[in-house]
Amino acid sequence: MKKQTLLYTLFILAFNCTNKKKEASITAIYVKESHSYAKPNEAVIKHLDLDIVVDFETEVITGTASYAIENYEASEIVLDSKFLDIISTEVDGRPNNFELGSFDEQLGQALRIPISKDTKQVTVHYKTTDKTEALQWLSPQQTADKKHPFLFTQGQAILTRSWIPIQDSPQIRITYDAKVVVPKELMAVMSAENPKQKTVDGVYNFKMKQPISPYLIALAIGDLEYKAVSNRTGIYAEKSMVDKAQAEFIDMEKMVVAAEHLYGDYDWDQFDVIVLPPSFPFGGMENPRLTFATPTVIAGDKSLTSLIAHELAHSWSGNLVTNATWNDFWLNEGFTVYFEIRIMEALYGKDRANMIALIGRQDLEEAVEGFKDEPEMTKLKLDLSNKNPDDGMNSIAYDKGYLFLRTLEEKVGRDTFDAFLKNYFKTNAFSAVTTESFIDYLNSNLLEPNGITFNTKEWIYQPGIPDNQSIIISNKFENAEKTLQYYLDTKAVDISKTQDWTTQEWVHFIRNFPETVTTDDLLRLDNAFDFTNATNSHIAMVWYEQAINHDYHGNDVDQKIEDFLIRVGRRWYVSTLFKAFKKADKVDKALAIYEQSRPNYHSVTVNTIDMLLGYDKE
After folding, report:
1. Going by C-beta distance under 8 Å and a sequence separation of 6 or more, which residues neighbour residue 52?
2. Scanning 168, 244, 275, 407, which has the fewest C-beta atoms within 10 Å of its C-beta?
């Protein structure tokens, strides 16, 4: 049997004698997983049939989940469940018992269903509850058009178990079919083959034929319209947003072509984006075939579309080749940042790509400083046992992972590195990897054949940033720094010096305000460039952070900050501003704003800000 070096699954060819005849069977061995109760080496889900009814009046999903399983003569199958009302279970079409284990704040409960060694199908009838974390139910007032309610899910990292009982580990891959019943005035879409228009009866049927990890099962329901960008790319959004979104993301097909040119065929048939209401907790989520995106990236000038390149890149790094556990999260995100920046370079040039990379490098420096009391959290390979895997979803995985790969590219040469990555994605398509199996693959397929020595283990297993890191340079950023210094020295603002600046240049300009900058300086710059009223969300966020840091209150900026925090639920943005309040000893003010904004946030954002501000839920 040919060895597949990087597969997270070890395949063992076992020969069993049955009726004196040898038969070969392949047994999949899964790695130890600290964030799931599942025992996939005993019984594992291979396909899900989901049949659900979505009730916006009660804010409850009632459903039936039927699973085709691979059974290694197990006596039970174990699923993950959190805040679900489990009504009944069936095994091979017959009623069966079940048992729920003790509740864990992070993991939920083990759902144990007795089976026989011949069991092939298991069914669970269930309902969601008002504690279900993956779901965010939005009132019409919380949407763009303010006419109909909206619902979306967020499964990453371990929240899918809170709306579907499932084996919620990234190393498990399943296909799925779904039937979803919604109010007839709404449209349902999923991370699957999707409709392009509403049905007359509110019944939607979905199929995901490629095997995916459970955290990538996604659902959104709203008053949606679809507009194509090309024959395999397009936009879902509310009516008032769909034209803006289509114009903003008009380069989607070009991005797919550039990505395929770099690292091989796009294996998911369709690449669509749905623009969600502003409470969505992330910039984007790479759900296969249907990226979920925040409206904060719609700036009107395509300046924030690197996010779309990032989510597209996940179609290879993350969705196609997946981290086996959340301790290996950097394998998803470090590779994706590297790929994103390569796509941006191919479409918009090296200057733009390097500016994006340098902003990430600055984020990394801030993250390393933030973890000075927990240096182990600055390693790429983490130990997140007894922690929420969200704790590892920060700039270390993204930007240290990127820096490692960029440094490696510079060491081996771009052409050699590209050939390696293209083969990496092709060889390990639709499988999951551990950090250790990646290192083995890297040594066997890149470093040893080319006689190259590299400090791989230092990068991955040691805290901080190794000395041999790639040095990223941007002439445009150097010019932004000189321009800032000129303004501060002369107390004069010449707006001609900043004509045609990109978002990245403005972000760098604002981020580099010195500690000695005065409120008069900030007022002068604000009057010249109207930062307080910026329509570009990234520029607004870094300006508001500086306003808090330097106790600036000009041009009604305090009200603008409050409005921003109440309107926008993107975790990166709101956590940045609440951290600034905390650092400035303005926790009382932060809590007053948070009391108003908290009901608008998804649970992912709420959990982060509750902890950050020490919010008392009672």
Report:
1. 61, 62, 63, 64, 178, 179, 180, 181
2. 244
How many angstroms from the chain centroid is the CA of residue 311? 8
334, 402 contact by CB (below 8 A): yes
Q: How far apart are CA 469 and CA 405, in angstroms?
A: 10
State phi, psi for 77 to the nearest 5 degrees. -115, 140
- In angstroms, rounded to a whole number, what is the distance separating the alpha carbons of residues 68 and 120? 6
Mean pLDDT of 67-78: 96
Is residue 398 flagged as an active site residue? yes
Question: Of the residues 37, 204, 215, 398, which is catalytic?
Answer: 398
For the chain, what percent of residues have pLDDT higher than 70? 95
Other C-beta atoms within 10 Å of 77: how many?
Answer: 26
Q: Are 306 and 340 a contacting pair, CB within 8 Å?
A: yes
Q: What angle do CA 470, 474, 475 make, to 5 degrees?
A: 145
282 contacts 393 by C-beta, under 8 angstroms:
no
pLDDT at 406: 98
CB contact at 8 A, 423 and 313 = no
The bridge status of strand 99-100 relative to strand 150-153 is unpaired
Q: Quick check: 313 and 306 in contact, CB under 8 A?
A: no
Give the model confidence (pLDDT) of 425-445 as tens digits: 999 999 999 999 999 999 999
- Name the catalytic one among 311, 345, 505, 545: 311
Is the pLDDT at 7 greater than 80? The verdict is no
* Band of residue 617 on the pLDDT scale cut at 50, 70, 90: confident
Query: For 493-522, how does the pLDDT look when each residue is reduced to its tens digit (9 = 90+)?
Result: 999 999 999 999 999 999 999 999 999 999
Nearby residues of 425 by Cβ (< 8 Å), 6 or more positions away:
263, 264, 316, 317, 320, 321
Q: What is the mean pLDDT of the chain?
A: 94
Residue located via tokens 């490692």? 404
Taking the C-alpha atoms of residue 83 and residue 490, their distance in angstroms, rounded to an integer, is 60
Residue 27 scores a pLDDT above 60: no
Contact call for residues 291 and 285 (beta carbons, < 8 A) = yes
CA separation for the pair 575, 52 (Å, rounded) = 34
Token pair listed for 416: 């050699």
Backbone φ and ψ for 531, nearest 5 degrees, come out as -60, -35
